Amino acid sequence: KAGVTQTPRYLIKTRGQQVTLSCSPISGHRSVSWYQQTPGQGLQFLFEYFSETQRNKGNFPGRFSGRQFSNSRSEMNVSTLELGDSALYLCASSFLQGIDEQYFGPGTRLTVT
Amino acid sequence: GQQVMQIPQYQHVQEGEDFTTYCNSSTTLSNIQWYKQRPGGHPVFLIQLVKSGEVKKQKRLTFQFGEAKKNSSLHITATQTTDVGTYFCAGPINTNAGKSTFGDGTTLTVKP
Hints:
The structure holds 2 protein chains of 2 kinds. By secondary structure, chain A is mainly beta. Chain A contains no helices and 11 strands. Helix content of chain A is about 0%, strand content about 55%. In chain A, the strands form 2 sheets. In chain A, strands 2, 4, 5, 6, 9, 10 and 11 form a 7-stranded mixed sheet that branches. By secondary structure, chain B is an all-beta fold. Chain B is built from no helices and 11 strands. In chain B, the strands form 2 sheets. In chain B, strands 2, 4, 5, 9, 10 and 11 form a 6-stranded mixed sheet that branches. A 5-stranded antiparallel sheet of chain B has the order 1-3-8-7-6, with no helix packed on it. The interface of A and B includes residues 48, 55, 103 and 105 of A.
C-alpha cells in the first residue's frame, strides 16, 4: 500500500500571500488530520476531516482552513501568511475517525519570508 | 484544556544504556499512542495502549499505561544508535474521541 503523500514538499512564500497544501491519504483511510510542527511548539493539531466534514478543530486562527474531497484527499489553506506560519505541516491519515493510529506523510516545509 | 506532558525533553545516553520517557495527562485518557520521529523524518506510529495497567513489548521497547490511565512510559533496554529520534506520546483531545494531543516529545541521542 502506498503511504501518505503530501505536495509540495517545500514552499517559500512571502508575508501576506496564501498557500494551499495537499494530502493524499492511504487508500481506504477516510480520516485526514493536519498538524503544524515547529521547534518551539512541537506538534500542534490543526483539524481533522472525515467523510468530507471537519470533525475536530485545534486552536488556530481562521486563516487556517481545510477541506476534504470525496476521494478522501485533503487540502489545507493558509491565508495572509505571517512569518510565524513557517513550519513543517504534517498530514496524517487513519482508517477511523477519532481514536485510531495515524500514519503521517513526509510533510510540507513552508518558509514565510 | 487537556494537556499531555512529557519528560524529559532531552536524553543523552551511551549506547547500551537504558532509556525511559514519561508521559502524564491532567485527565484520564481513553487510550495513549506512542510515535517515533527520526531526525528529518515524520512521526511513525509505534503502539496504542487502551487498558488500565496495560504493558506491551516490542523487542527492546516496553510500553506501559498507568492504572489510573493518566500516565504512560516507554522504556528502551540497551539502546542502539538506531533508537535515535524524538519519541512522542499522544492522547485524545476530548472525551468525544477527538484526535490526539501530542506531548512535546523526548529527544534521544545515543553516543556510540
